[in-house]
Amino acid sequence: MTDDRGLSCAQLQEISAEIALGVLPADEQAAAMAHLERCPACGARVHELALTADALLELVPDSEPPTGFEGRVLERLGSTPARRATHRERWRRVALATAAAAAGLALGGGGWVLGSLSGRPVLAAPITSPAQPHVLTAQLTGGGHPMGQAFAYTGTSPWMYLSVDADGHSGTVQCRLQRADGSTVVLGAFTLDGDGYGHWGGPYPAGAAPVTGVRLLAANGSPLATATFVASQALPEHRQQPAVW
Amino acid sequence: MAGDPEIAAAFVRRFQSRVFGVAIGVVGDAQLAEDIAQQTFEQAYRHAQVYDPRRGSVRTWLSAIAHNQAIDALRAHKATPVAPADLEDMVETVTDTPERYALTAEAAVELRRAVAALPRDQARAVVMAGIYGMTAQQVADFEKVPLGTAKTRIRAATGKLRASLATRQVDHD
């Protein structure tokens, strides 16, 4: 295919390695990204090459940092008890991501995402391999509007993770799990900030009936948002050991 | 889920050698590498929502952040991304015999062999681009070859490495 700016698949493939390695000159990036947004085939190829680039970094050996590094990092992040308390949710998220990695997650769906951690584009390509069967994903919706995303890991040591962006809502919300047999269980409560943003993650009790969805309730008990997982994906959880990093 | 101080400390302890390893591997200076490694954990902390399980493990994610930070530092601190001797050392490192890395994942061992099997100019090109973040033009200038030749080397090398991994699932930490 050829996009509006005339970049063909053949031309894109000429530079696909440079895209994947993150070294395509800035003045060439816009046309490349425009093509990739329209062309899943080229996107899949660049994604594969990006995984190769990631693997190449693995050949750079690990190296122990200087003595005291850990303490200096924690100090930089805010090591006083009062400040640490405010960071708990974010670290929960990181820890949960780690648990997800330990479980070998591969989430399906999604299109190209151009983020930036430190000035260079970070590409998140569509998945080309089958999604991990124990992972359920669903959009949280409330009042007909998208309000975030729910992820459930139903394999070893099941857990749920919610990322909420609910404009106009703030304060404490309750997360309630729903199962196919009609039963529900309260998983926990967390806080949405003034912008309606918040996230929560944690384990949930294994059960015989598959997880079908999750509901968010406002502090007064009124429904705020729901997410319904695809029924065909739902699987009963395994009762096994917790995942480790 | 454990409390915040324990999670933060355990997280840093778990991944610090990987993050510092990438940083010092790219910039070569211990003090600068430590600063990059600290920035990496700060970035991870601020941008945990950017973590994309589709792209690989947390280890891979942190490596990518450290790599980006290190490349930015190289561009800010050095006119030339890598000295010829350092490039040679890195090419030797990434093609070193697997026996030295007994605990390395099988996929990494396979990739190491694949890099070692590349023509030397292609191995150098993919290390320059993939590890030191050099553009094709910088590779061309460094190697004193036409831009098209540098692009071809990068493309050919990356394609061969991808093929070597195609039938293997990259190890997830």
TrEMBL record, chain A:
<keyword id="KW-0472">Membrane</keyword>
<keyword id="KW-1133">Transmembrane helix</keyword>
<protein>
    <recommendedName>
        <fullName>Zinc-finger domain-containing protein</fullName>
    </recommendedName>
</protein>
<keyword id="KW-0812">Transmembrane</keyword>
<keyword id="KW-0805">Transcription regulation</keyword>
<feature type="transmembrane region" description="Helical">
    <location>
        <begin position="94"/>
        <end position="114"/>
    </location>
</feature>
<dbReference type="InterPro" id="IPR041916">
    <property type="entry name" value="Anti_sigma_zinc_sf"/>
</dbReference>
<keyword id="KW-0804">Transcription</keyword>
Automatic annotation (TrEMBL), chain B:
<dbReference type="InterPro" id="IPR007627">
    <property type="entry name" value="RNA_pol_sigma70_r2"/>
</dbReference>
<keyword id="KW-0805">Transcription regulation</keyword>
<feature type="domain" description="RNA polymerase sigma factor 70 region 4 type 2">
    <location>
        <begin position="110"/>
        <end position="157"/>
    </location>
</feature>
<dbReference type="GO" id="GO:0016987">
    <property type="term" value="F:sigma factor activity"/>
</dbReference>
<dbReference type="GO" id="GO:0006352">
    <property type="term" value="P:DNA-templated transcription initiation"/>
</dbReference>
<keyword id="KW-0804">Transcription</keyword>
<feature type="domain" description="RNA polymerase sigma-70 region 2">
    <location>
        <begin position="11"/>
        <end position="78"/>
    </location>
</feature>
<dbReference type="Pfam" id="PF04542">
    <property type="entry name" value="Sigma70_r2"/>
</dbReference>
<dbReference type="InterPro" id="IPR014284">
    <property type="entry name" value="RNA_pol_sigma-70_dom"/>
</dbReference>
<dbReference type="InterPro" id="IPR013325">
    <property type="entry name" value="RNA_pol_sigma_r2"/>
</dbReference>
<dbReference type="InterPro" id="IPR039425">
    <property type="entry name" value="RNA_pol_sigma-70-like"/>
</dbReference>
<keyword id="KW-0731">Sigma factor</keyword>
<dbReference type="InterPro" id="IPR036388">
    <property type="entry name" value="WH-like_DNA-bd_sf"/>
</dbReference>
<dbReference type="InterPro" id="IPR013249">
    <property type="entry name" value="RNA_pol_sigma70_r4_t2"/>
</dbReference>
<dbReference type="GO" id="GO:0003677">
    <property type="term" value="F:DNA binding"/>
</dbReference>
<comment type="similarity">
    <text>Belongs to the sigma-70 factor family. ECF subfamily.</text>
</comment>
<dbReference type="Pfam" id="PF08281">
    <property type="entry name" value="Sigma70_r4_2"/>
</dbReference>
<protein>
    <submittedName>
        <fullName>RNA polymerase sigma-70 factor (ECF subfamily)</fullName>
    </submittedName>
</protein>
<dbReference type="InterPro" id="IPR013324">
    <property type="entry name" value="RNA_pol_sigma_r3/r4-like"/>
</dbReference>
